[in-house]
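hi! just following up on the protien thing from before. the input was this:
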Amino acid sequence: MRLGDMLVAAKIVTKEQVQEALEVQKESGRRLGAELVALGFVNELQITQMLSNQLSVPWVDLAHVEFSRELLSLIPPEVCEEVCCIPVYRRAVRKEGETLFVAMDDPSNDDALARLREVSPLPVKAMVSPPTAIRSAIRVYYFGQEPLPSPERPKSASRHPGPPSPAVESPADDAVAESPSAPGPRFVTLTLLDGTTVRLPAKAPATPEPGPRALTASDLVNALLARGQGAEVGDILGEEANWEVLFATLLQLLIRKGVVADYEFVDALEKSRR
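and the predicted 3d structure came back as:
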């Protein structure tokens, strides 16, 4: 799906707003996402998450990246400014060796990727981040300047009023929620650094009313340990215990709190398979 169609399907913008942005785009020459942001119909984070979903490219919150002088030296600052990018990770990729992951505002820009591959001593893989966050990181980490101010939120009233935009999941959720009008539970899609995509519940199910004995996290830990030794744990989690959901919920919580990053989990998983 095209970016505009995906935003409309998610009820973030209306068809009329996309059409208006396309008309203005004829004069400005900007990409559709940038035009929608300039018109105040969406914010940069919503566009970033949609691009990640559209292109199956992982997106990264730069606030959680540990920039080092060695990492930054892999891409010259003038090139970072030229193509709006910044190096974020240096990781070993199976079958490709040591690889440089670079946050870009537009991972589909082939010319920008070619420019990065010219100057990088390592193979380059693209990630996606909001353009203001990238430019701010360049100012701070390359030039020691003050960060750029945070972009404004979308206007509450647009020229073509439509349904209110749904709340965007926090960056740690790594995806845009599907349309709230869709039947069934809401999910988010995570694109990992190796290109793998997984779907997890966007929000944890509602907590049941506590009975005589409310379930605790310690119960879950004990259940996992007991299950690992072959014990039956139906009396703790019920006869229909869903271990996939339990693990997905735990992993989602660890990612949201910044305890682990998706690339760390993938690396550890790959090592365990060797």
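The two ends are 37 Å apart (CA to CA).
The CA atoms of residues 10 and 182 lie 9 Å apart.
cheers
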